[in-house]
Write a structure and sequence with these properties.
With 248 residues, the protein is of the alpha/beta class. It has helices spanning 22-34, 53-66, 90-103, 117-129, 147-159, 174-190, 201-210, 234-247; strands at residues 12-17, 39-43, 72-75, 108-112, 133-140, 164-169, 195-199, 218-222, 232-233. Bound molecules: 1,3,4-trihydroxy-5-OXO-cyclohexanecarboxylic acid. 1,3,4-trihydroxy-5-OXO-cyclohexanecarboxylic acid is lined by residues 16, 41, 43, 75, 77, 82, 110, 137, 139, 166, 168, 198, 200, 220, 227-228, 231. 1,3,4-trihydroxy-5-OXO-cyclohexanecarboxylic acid (DQA) is lined by residues 16, 41, 43, 75, 77, 82, 110, 137, 139, 166, 168, 198, 200, 220, 227-228, 231. It is an enzyme of class 4 (lyase).
């Protein structure tokens, strides 16, 4: 599975695509493809035809056909955690994630850790049976929770057998950004699965540039369009990593 290739010394550069139609998505993908990301995230909460599961699987396969060698992450972000409103109920979201594991060639699904544990365990089982990886994620668009709370979230993701634990939080000061980096470094010693962390917005943007040094395994970068505040274009992040590595 792809996460065994996650390199501690170099992060996966992931670029989201956020189109509302298959045409928009494939146009975005043409731009993104040229930039050679290590992972592509389809933000399905923006997709107009999200209720038509067969159509969603068809589009996922069309995306994968354009970038066959690049792990494809399938994300339905909830409004509560910064996503776009969708007509799907929580049960339908579980249904779509299960369907997509069974009927498409996506590689990874994202599920929010705040969801009921029984649904998470169900999706863990289905994704594993289908050979897909599972990211358990947590987002707070208003603040950066305490060190204790964030470490508990990462540990919970590990105990629920996620392949990767991810947290994206909003800083209200530089000390929040430093805390996030500190937690990232601690988590790498305390838990065994890879973690992906980011501090959002202008204040936190530095975490997207240097978080990998502290052990964040994935950086969400802009390929064509941004999916969260503070994301940096992929080519800029590459340059920064290259410069740091030259002098490390
Ligand atoms: O979870 C994340 C991280 C993210 O919110 C960010 O802050 O870069 C962007 C989302 O597209 C992705 O699903």
């Amino acid at each position: 599975m792809f996460q065994s290739k996650l390199r501690k010394e170099y992060p996966y550069l992931c670029t989201p695509i956020v189109g509302t139609t298959s045409e928009e998505l494939l146009d975005e993908l043409e731009i993104v493809k040229e930039k050679g990301p290590d992972m592509i995230e389809w933000r399905v909460d923006y997709f107009q035809e999200i209720q038509d599961f067969e159509r969603v699987a068809e589009v996922a396969n069309a995306i994968k056909k354009v970038t066959p060698g690049t792990p494809l992450l399938f994300t339905i972000r909830s409004v509560a955690e910064g996503g776009n409103p969708t007509p799907l109920s929580p049960a339908e979201i579980v249904g779509l994630l299960s369907y997509i594991c069974k009927h498409s060639c996506i590689d990874i699904i994202d599920y929010e850790i705040a969801n009921p544990e029984e649904d998470t365990l169900h999706l863990r089982k289905v994704s594993r049976e289908c050979g897909k990886s599972l990211i358990l994620s947590y987002h707070d668009f208003t603040k950066t929770p305490s060190e204790d709370q964030l470490l508990q979230i990462l540990k919970k993701a590990e105990s629920l057998e996620a392949d990767i634990a991810k947290i994206a939080v909003m800083p209200n000061s530089y000390s929040d950004v430093i805390r996030l980096l500190d937690i990232t470094e601690q988590a790498n010693r305390l838990i065994k699965i890879p973690v992906a962390t980011m501090s959002m917005n202008g204040l936190g943007t530095v975490s997207r540039m240097i978080g990998w040094i502290f052990g964040s395994a994935i950086v969400f970068t802009v390929g064509a369009k941004s999916s969260a505040p503070g994301q940096v274009p992929i080519e800029k992040v590459r340059e920064i990593i290259k410069t740091i590595k030259e002098y490390q």
